[in-house]
Amino acid sequence: MIDTTRSIFSISIMASYFGNLILFLAVIQSAIAAVTFTVPKQAHTGGYRYAPLDPAPVGISFEFFAFPSYFSNVTATNQCLSNWKDMTGVWPPIRIGGTTQDRAQYDSKTSAYVVYSVSNPADAPASLTFGSSFLTLAGTYAGSVVVGLNRGKNQIQNTIDAAKIVISEVKNLLAIELGNEPEYYSRNGQPIASGGWSPAIDAASQNNWALSVGSAVQKSSIIQAGNSNDSPPTWGAAELIATENATVKSYVKTYAHHNYPGGSVDSLMSHKSISSNLHVFDADVTAALKEGKPYVFGETNSVSGGGAAGVSPTFGAALWTMDYVLRASYSNISRTYFHHGTVGNCQYCFWGRYSMGAPYYGAYAATALLAKASYLTALDDGTTNYAAYVSFSSDGTPLRALLYNSDYFSGSGSRSSQSFNIGGLSGSSLKAKRLTAESAMSRVDQGGKVTYGGQTFTDGSCKVAGTESTESLSVSNGQVTITLKASEALLIYLQ
Hints:
TIM Barrel, globular
């Protein structure tokens, strides 16, 4: 006779054994798959590299001709900037410039901000004039201002006349740019390039104009030099600095470059791709810092030419914005000015007259990590899709950490996730805010829901809406394990 009781008992034991084995293996697999980072107890320890932070690293660049409209016709502008100021205590820096700065000439007789005509409101003007009221408006902004003036037309006296008004009207002036993306002057038929054009000729021109304008306005440390868009080393800061004498350098406040990485949403938001893109600027940053001058991205965004409809307004572009700001800051790029073009015809704009853009959420999350911090480090080496940053106070105390899973989720199929094991923590619990959306392709302007800490920004006004949602993280033995879905980020408050 078969002892069925014993057989059933044996089968039950074996089932339990194999069940536990599978669970054990799953736990081991999860532990192996998790990425592990340790938060330093103090800045400048743990073998990490630390970057000093500007009080307001995230800025906005306004296309020259469109600037008055952003500040007089777009309600969201002041509120969107104020939201960041509320976190940092400092108004974000702005830059006024772009392609139309080299099409714009100063007219002392006009009372208008700008004068131009276009056949379609979505177009940028081929030529325009501006009056002193344009600069008076710029002077009303409470944060630092960079003003770009014309060099392409090769009418230096007109530019000097404008620069003198800039000095008198813009009280929070940080610097004046002399020309925008000069590598394109020859292609665009600019008069200054009519006799031939090259990096060497441009450098000589930049140096001569810096001397002439700087001496005319009787200001040292007044010029934002460089302002090219081609990838260094050609047209880069190191190349320009090598041509400058001590007098020219005395007029330079900052060195700037422009950058538009482009690509698909998948490639754009990849942490590995972002890190690789920023390494292109390492030599230029080093050259500028050697001169004791800050290096900035004076104009940047996802895709050039106002953005790409299938890329720039997406949540993936928001995640790129966030990670790009942080990796740039970590790379000693002091400020990052995100360009805003023609009102109503701008795929990469953070806001407009009627709709918010998803990228604003990424900029907001980056600002939240950096707010009132003095130092930043990256815990990862930039070679994977998983990022971890920590910001620190002036006394070196860790303030906040940000984790980013840049695996791409299109919105179809199953959404993968990634575990992060974070060590070096204090206390028994921490709070966190999640930056998330339905997918990397979600668009606020098409009804997609993007949230940061459960909240949104209202279309047309940029006011914070909804109830704040924070997550509670249980810390055990100084460690916590966090799961992030593909195309998500999490800000952790360490204090």
